[in-house]
């Protein structure tokens, strides 16, 4: 339990740092560390496949994409944020912390959730047999993402033709 | 069991709050996207934790993997969009986008 709380605190701290760092590179790396914490939490919750995906894809691939974008937009650091934003963050955070602690417990009793009960079969059976439609949708989403990226970078060639 | 569920959802709500705060207040497009990522971390934590507490971890795990795949696709598309916006405006300031006309 204590380790879980430390991991959850690490996740929140690095996520907070990711939005508070002015340097975008540091922010992207903080986000990767937060993903690492989340992956370890998934492992400890008994979800190793989700943990592997979280660490390899989110902490690895997405961080690389972020760093690539930051490198391609070098002057992006020059955007000035309002000073009040960083000063007000701790105040709002503590306020939300208190509200969250007070409200969440009573809220949980009212939210309907999945009925408790042991599951049958393995992860592979659940993923490939019960969630087959999800897998088809995932292929569609990946194709849509690839086509969108291709369409966004095709624009330059059209400009040359003109 | 309920205490454990409370703990995870408490932290998931904190992550979602951090993300929403950043989305509402910051101006840098990449920062805004980092905020979206933080929110998605909160959501995936809530999904897996609820699955673990309610003994539905296999289903929760498959949903989390689906969610991660959607997230990657979203990131790739959005970052390509951000690079295009930067090429056009020479800035990542989100306020410049208000000058767009359809």
What is the residue-mean pLDDT of chain B, rounded to a whole number?
87
Q: What is Rg of chain B?
A: 17 Å
Tally of distinct domains of chain B: 1
Biggest interface, CB < 8 A: A-B, 83 and 70 residues
Level-1 CATH class name of chain B: Mainly Alpha
Structural class of chain B: mainly alpha
Predict the CATH topology of the largest domain in chain A: Four Helix Bundle (Hemerythrin (Met), subunit A)
Strand percentage of chain A lies at under 5%
Distance between the termini of chain A: 63 Å
* SSE run of chain B: HHH
Estimate the mean pLDDT confidence of chain A: 83
> Per CATH, which architecture of chain B?
Orthogonal Bundle
**Contiguous uncertain segments of 5+ residues of chain A:** none
State the shape of chain A. globular
Oligomer: heterodimer
Number of strands of chain A: 0
Beta-strand residue percentage of chain B: under 5%
Give the end-to-end Cα distance of chain B, rounded to a whole number of Å.
52 Å
Set down the secondary structure blueprint.
The complex is a heterodimer of chains A (162) and B (102).
Chain A: H1 2-20, H2 24-44, H3 48-72, H4 83-110, H5 123-130, H6 132-161
Helix pairs in contact in A: 1-2, 2-3, 5-6
Chain B: H1 2-25, H2 29-53, H3 57-89
